[in-house]
Specification:
Keywords: Hydrolase, Membrane, Transmembrane, Transmembrane helix. GO terms for molecular function: hydrolase activity. It holds the Pfam family HAD. It comes from Leyella stercorea. InterPro entries: HAD-like_sf (IPR036412), HAD_sf (IPR023214). A hairpin with a 5-residue loop joins β4 and β5. 46% of the residues lie in helices and 19% in strands. It has a single domain, classed as Rossmann fold (3-Layer(aba) Sandwich), CATH 3.40.50. α1 packs across α2. The relative contact order is 0.19. A five-stranded parallel beta sheet has the order 3-2-1-6-7, with helices on both faces. It has a two-stranded antiparallel ribbon with strand order 4-5. The protein is built from eleven helices and seven strands. By secondary structure, the chain is α/β, with parallel strands linked by helices.
Length: 206
C-alpha cells in the first residue's frame, strides 16, 4: 500500500492566514491598511456571499503586486518564509519532520500562493527521500516576467482540493484502493479532502 499525507496550509499547519501576513510583510503596514480599506466594500460582499472569494482574493493580490518582477516576488516569498518559520505550529512541524525523515509522500494542498508556501518546507525537505509537492494557487506573468495580478489556477478550496490531488497522483482515480491517505484540515474548505481520505484529522495540531 502507498501512503500519502495531504495537508491544508493556512490554519492547519500555520497559526495565521498567510495571505494577510505576507502582504503586510511585503508591502508594509501602512500600504496593507490602505489596500484593505479600499477593498472593504468588496470584502463585505464576499462575506455576504454576494461576490466570489476567489475573485476578491485575485483583485486584492493584483492591487498590491501587479507589475512586480517575478524574481523580486520570489525573493520576498523566500525571505518571508525564512523570517516567519514560527507560523508553523510546533506539533505540525514535528510530524512533518518525521514524515520527511521517513521518506513518506507529503502534499500541501492550499488556496494560498505556492510561491510563498513552498519555502516554508525547504529546510525540512532538504535531503529527504520524500515525494513532496505543494498544490497551491499559481500566479500569472507576462512576457517580461512581470506579475499580471491574475491567477493561473482555480481556487484550491472544497472539491478543487481533491481534484488537484488526483491530477498530481493520477493513480488515485483508477487505483484508489492502492493508497492509504491521511488528510489534515481545519475548515469548511477542507471538508471534501477530509472525506476523500482514509483517515481524517480536523484541527489536530492545536
Amino acid at each position: 500500500m502507498k501512503r500519502l499525507y495531504a495537508f491544508d496550509f493556512d490554519g492547519t499547519l500555520t497559526t495565521a492566514d498567510t495571505l494577510l501576513v505576507f502582504i503586510r510583510y511585503a508591502c508594509g503596514t501602512w500600504r496593507f491598511i490602505v489596500g484593505f480599506l479600499l477593498h472593504s466594500p468588496l470584502l463585505v460582499l464576499m462575506k455576504l456571499k454576494l461576490y466570489p472569494n476567489y475573485r476578491a482574493k485575485q483583485r486584492i493580490f493584483a492591487w498590491y503586486f501587479r507589475g512586480m518582477e517575478l524574481k523580486t516576488f520570489d525573493a520576498l516569498c523566500r525571505q518571508f518564509a525564512e523570517r516567519n518559520a514560527c507560523l508553523i505550529r510546533p506539533k505540525a512541524k514535528a510530524l512533518l519532520e518525521r514524515l520527511f525523515s521517513e521518506g513518506e509522500s507529503v502534499c500541501v494542498v492550499s488556496a494560498s500562493i505556492d510561491n510563498w508556501v513552498r519555502p516554508f518546507f525547504t529546510n525540512m525537505a532538504t535531503n529527504s527521500r520524500s515525494n513532496f509537492c505543494v498544490l497551491g494557487t499559481q500566479v500569472e506573468t507576462d512576457n517580461n516576467e512581470l506579475l499580471t495580478g491574475r491567477f493561473l489556477t482555480n481556487n484550491c478550496y472544497g472539491a478543487e482540493k481533491v481534484e488537484r490531488l488526483c491530477k498530481q497522483y493520477p493513480d488515485l482515480t483508477v487505483h484508489r484502493n492502492d493508497y492509504v491517505i491521511e488528510a489534515f484540515g481545519d475548515s469548511r474548505g477542507d471538508k471534501e479532502l477530509l472525506s476523500f481520505a482514509d483517515k481524517a484529522h480536523f484541527k489536530p495540531f492545536r
